[in-house]
Write a structure and sequence with these properties.
mainly beta; five-stranded mixed beta sheet; three-stranded antiparallel beta sheet; 1 helix; elongated
Amino acid sequence: KPFEAGDAYAYESKPSEVQKESAAASLDDIFVVPNPYVAYSIAEEPGRLPDKRGDKQLQFRNLPPECTIRIYTITGELVSVIYKNDFSNMATWDLLSDEGQRIAYGVYIYHVEVPDAGEKIGRFAVIK
């Protein structure tokens, strides 16, 4: 059908929003990869040179758009905090403490806090 001079078109859009109920229901889907982290992971990106490894990293997956991830040692010491506020479903951690120190091997606890939706507590291991 050809366009005519009197034709009018209307377009309406709704802003994106996060549904708190579905965010709370999906908290059990959050997981860490690789788990356990073994000194080197195939999931790491290659480094600047093809024969050198890239940055060490863990990934938290199936995250809601906004959350806070706290990482603790098994004895309860806070190691690092990650603030996420974007529309991706993952966050990465460089395996360094908030003070920039390399972490030791062992079991770590992560706590994901989602505003108005709840929290998820899990664990992962680091083997060196």
